[in-house]
Amino acid sequence: MRCRHCFAPLEHTFIDLGFAPPSNAYLTFKDLANPEKYFPLKVKVCTQCWLVQTEDFTKADELFNADYAYFSSTSIGWLTHAKDYVNKISSRFELGKGSLVIEVASNDGYLLKNFVAMGIPCLGIEPTESTALAAEKLGIPVLRKFFGKHLGQQLAASGKQADLIIGNNVYAHVPDINDFTHGLKAALKLGGTITLEFPHLMRLVEYSQFDTVYHEHFSYLSLYTVKIIFETVGLRVWDVEELPTHGGSLRVYGCHVEDLRGSTSAVGELLEKELQRGLQALSTYGSFQCKANCIKNDFLSFLIEQNRSGKTVGAYGAAAKGNTLLNFAGVKPDLLPFVCDAAASKQGKFMPGSHIPILDPSDLIKRRPDYLVIFPWNIAAEVKLQNKDLESLGTKFVTAVPRIAIS
Ligand SMILES: [Zn+2]
Predict the structure, then answer these.
(1) CB neighbours of 114 closer than 8 A, spacing ≥ 6?
(2) Which of 180, 302, 372, 394 has the smallest number of CB atoms closer than 10 Å to its CB?
(3) What is the pLDDT of residue 67?
(4) pLDDT (tens digit, 9 = 90+) per residue, 343-398?
(5) Ion ligand 1 nearby residues (CB, 5 A)
(6) Alpha carbon of 235 to those of 6, 21, 301: distances in Å?
(7) Would you say 19 and 40 are in contact if contact means Cβ atoms under 8 Å apart?
(8) pTM passes above 0.85
């Protein structure tokens, strides 16, 4: 396989998580009687441009036909994050009635609705029908398409170049990052700004966040690599912010290479920090597997120990992080009998691979587990707050990454 950005041969493995079913392939009771498809889950690192990327495999198309859709508006913390961003960005770039804001992967309109409320024209791009429909109900125009070079050029040709293009948690999920970046360049007005948010590779390495690896997450990005990819298509990174979201994200600001804006000192400082943390040294990537193995073993030991001493354990959050950890560790319902999730679309189904049943969180009070493992460690505080009653009944909360923590 060659690097998806620079096409250099990929010779080094960052992490090998074995085989796993697609993380959003939730199963019905009937499905449990059928064979299940597993795909390799391996991440490589390119030593030319340092793009960390999932390995290609044949029949990748079969991964993405699951009809499950995630609605961004289900997370209160994320809604607040989006609102704060809109307030800040619209005054920083003096956006008004004559501006155009485009959001790629606009989901259910969780963010663009704030621009609608301010009377700033916007356009959402979202291929998933159910979420696109929800956004339209909020008064947001939505193009039901995948974004890339072709769509970027179409938007430009129809006079729809944007003053601001937003991409939140989409850049790491596109299979062809070069094509997507070409699209950003084409759809951006001269003098316009692009902001992209994605989990920061530096934090993934620092906090051993191997459970953020899943098939649909194609790229694990540093500022260094994003800067290179931007430059290849004629864009420039001129500012960057470190954010606490998703265990440590970056918000990168881009503009056309010919834009007269100077770059902020934050760009050079963060590039230096990444270099110091070894993001351009092969040894950094070589030690990651060992850290993941340790976390996996500790998690298994914890579950076995509770099982032997007759304690009950449940889990919260039937999403990608949980599936990656459970499948890597080979955990089955004997050690972890249930997972709760607030999404009604998942309740009554089973986790892919592990076949652990997914329940409504209201069942937690009835079950009163001795321990509740919170898989989405990035929102552990929010989950604990929502389950205060459980805590008063004696349940302890557990997170497994970067190490077993019980509170
Ligand atoms: Zn490369």
Answers:
(1) 82, 83, 86, 87
(2) 394
(3) 54
(4) 898 999 999 999 999 999 999 999 999 999 999 999 899 899 999 999 999 999 99
(5) 3, 5-6, 8, 46, 48-49, 51
(6) 16, 37, 48
(7) yes
(8) yes
Q: Give 280 Cα–ligand 1 centroid separation in angstroms.
A: 12
Average pLDDT of the segment spanning 279-293: 97
3-state helix, strand, coil in the chain (%, to 5): 40, 25, 40
Task: Using the mean position of ligand 1's atoms as its centre, give its distance from the Cα of residue 228 in Å.
Answer: 10
CA of residue 229 to ligand 1 center, whole Å: 9
Q: How far is the CA of 221 from the centre of ligand 1 (A)?
A: 12
Q: From ligand 1's centre to the CA of 295, what distance in Å?
A: 29
Residues 159 and 290: their CA atoms lie apart, in Å, by: 52
Q: Which two tokens stand for residue 175?
A: 């299979």
Rounded CA separation 21/352 (Å): 6
pLDDT digits (tens, 9 = 90+) for 265-277: 999 999 999 999 9
- 18 Cα: distance to centroid of ligand 1 (angstroms): 23
Alpha-carbon span 92 to 89, nearest angstrom: 5
Interatomic CA distance for residues 379 and 102, integer angstroms: 28
Segments of 94-203 assigned E as strands = 101-104, 122-125, 142-143, 162-168, 188-199
Within 10 angstroms of residue 314's Cβ, the number of other Cβ atoms is 22
Rounded Cα gap, residues 314 and 337, in angstroms: 6
Ligand 1 mean position, distance from CA 46 (Å): 5
Give the distance (Å) from ligand 1 centre to CA of residue 175.
14
Q: Is residue 130 within 8 Å of 99, Cβ to Cβ?
A: no
- Is residue 263 within 8 Å of residue 289, measured between CB atoms? no
